[in-house]
Amino acid sequence: MASSKSVDKACPRAVRNDKHAGMAATEDQVKGIFNRYDTNKDGFLRKQELKHAFACLGSRMPRLRALLALHHADVNGDGYIDQSEFNNLVTYTLKRGYKFK
Questions:
Q1: Which DSSP helix (H) or strand (E) runs through 89?
Q2: What is the value of pTM for the model shown?
Q3: What is the C-alpha separation between 53 and 50, in angstroms, rounded?
Q4: Helix orientation angle between 27-36 and 47-57, rounded to the nearest 10 degrees
Q5: Residue pLDDT, tens place only, 38-79
Q6: How far apart (Å, rounded) are the C-alpha atoms in residues 71 and 65?
Q7: Contact 60/16 with Cβ under 8 angstroms?
Q8: Sheet holding 14-15, edge to edge
Q9: Cα–Cα distance between 19 and 68 in angstroms, integer?
Q10: How far apart are CA 4 and CA 52, in angstroms?
Q11: Which of 5, 37, 33 is nearest to 100 (CA)?
């Protein structure tokens, strides 16, 4: 798995801060990225996995974005995003306006 400081070659490169650059990420793309970063395939996304996914999406502060995503989407407060909370996470992420080249 790639760290937030290295480039994951399988990750589409996201662009930020240029309203004319790239296409908005689709729901399917965002779901695919989060599913890819569920490294142990247990159906739960933990903070570290979210951090790596947000780094892939191009977040300049993936650790902070992961914490904010947990705060927003973790309805039961267990510290993980489970399948029942997954759509909340995707909706939150799409609202951030990530774009791909």
A1: helix 86-95
A2: 0.81
A3: 5
A4: 130
A5: 999 999 999 999 999 999 999 999 999 999 999 999 999 999
A6: 10
A7: yes
A8: 14-15, 99-100, 23-24
A9: 23
A10: 6
A11: 33
